[in-house]
């Protein structure tokens, strides 16, 4: 079940231009509709613009990633105005004070904030493979490898958007556990709540993490570190329709003694229709949640899979 955090409790880092600040090279912004009008109702943003932070003016000359032999720097197209060292230093500074972040949304294609596939050029200006990473975003992700990160452009994909938001709230839930003091019991309880979430993403990881929690050979602190690493790695894998359908079928088994023949048939048909791409995930989930109200199951009621984030986001309606 979704843990009802207050808006101020879920803090997400974000490129300042994405929330409307006019900090881009041409004094414009690049507001994200989803971040501002939808997700912004449930989270608090901490906005950063590394280029402005290191003293670059608004407006300013454009900068790009330039690869000279094996060294990548960020500077103006002619190689002047190199800000690589300053941007890296600022990235390290923000990374060191951002342990309370539960996610980060970067501005795509930016030589400072791009998360992936940023254009890289040769010193002579020839385009190379677009496989660069922004100098600032690289430092954030390197220092916080478990932090859910995404780019504004990729958030237009309903599946990637849902995956990102689910990871943010799962990670925030974990942070709350850590804040309260980790114990073996709390780890076991947390894992129990994410059983079906893990199953829908990576069944192997689910089994491995279960075995980890059964271990008696490591400390609780080591166990917690390995557990959250395994969880966030698994959740980064986009859950397939096949995995979702198999997970829904597992959940259906809890109601086998309570549903009549027609009800069981209807639920099975909805799960199969979802598996085949004929209806969105929300359809079988709505029926399962309905049966859960009629036939309460405490173990199911605590499952994050059924309500991973605020329902008003409606992220499972589109796929």
TrEMBL record:
Residues 195-310 form the DUF1722 domain. Pfam families: 2-thiour_desulf (PF04463), DUF1722 (PF08349). This is DUF1722 domain-containing protein.
């Amino acid at each position: 079940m979704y843990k009802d955090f207050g808006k101020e409790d879920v803090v997400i880092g974000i490129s300042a231009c994405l929330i409307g600040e006019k900090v881009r090279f041409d004094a414009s912004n690049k507001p994200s509709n989803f971040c501002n009008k939808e997700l912004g109702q449930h989270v608090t943003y901490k906005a950063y613009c590394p280029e402005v932070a290191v003293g670059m003016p608004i407006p300013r000359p454009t900068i790009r990633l330039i690869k000279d032999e094996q060294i990548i720097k960020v500077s103006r197209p002619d190689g002047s105005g190199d800000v690589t060292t300053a941007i890296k230093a600022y990235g390290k500074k923000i990374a060191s004070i951002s342990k309370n972040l539960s996610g980060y949304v970067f501005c795509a294609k930016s030589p400072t904030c791009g998360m992936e596939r940023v254009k890289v050029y040769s010193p002579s200006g020839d385009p190379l493979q677009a496989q660069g990473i922004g100098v600032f975003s690289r430092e954030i992700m390197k220092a916080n490898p478990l932090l859910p990160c995404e780019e504004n452009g990729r958030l237009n994909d309903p599946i990637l958007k849902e995956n990102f938001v689910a990871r943010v709230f799962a990670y925030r839930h974990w942070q709350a556990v850590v804040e309260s003091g980790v114990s073996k019991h709390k780890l076991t309880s947390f894992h129990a709540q994410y059983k079906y979430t893990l199953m829908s993403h990576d069944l192997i990881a689910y089994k491995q993490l279960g075995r980890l929690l059964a271990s008696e050979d490591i400390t609780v602190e080591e166990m917690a570190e390995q557990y959250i690493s395994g969880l966030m790695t698994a959740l980064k894998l986009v859950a397939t329709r096949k995995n979702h359908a198999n997970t829904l079928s597992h959940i259906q088994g809890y109601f086998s003694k309570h549903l009549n023949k027609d009800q069981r048939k209807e639920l099975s048909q909805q799960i199969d229709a979802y598996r085949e791409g004929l209806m969105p995930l929300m359809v079988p989930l709505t029926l399962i949640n309905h049966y859960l109200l009629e036939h309460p199951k405490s173990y199911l009621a605590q499952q994050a899979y059924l309500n991973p984030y605020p329902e008003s986001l409606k992220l499972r309606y589109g796929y």
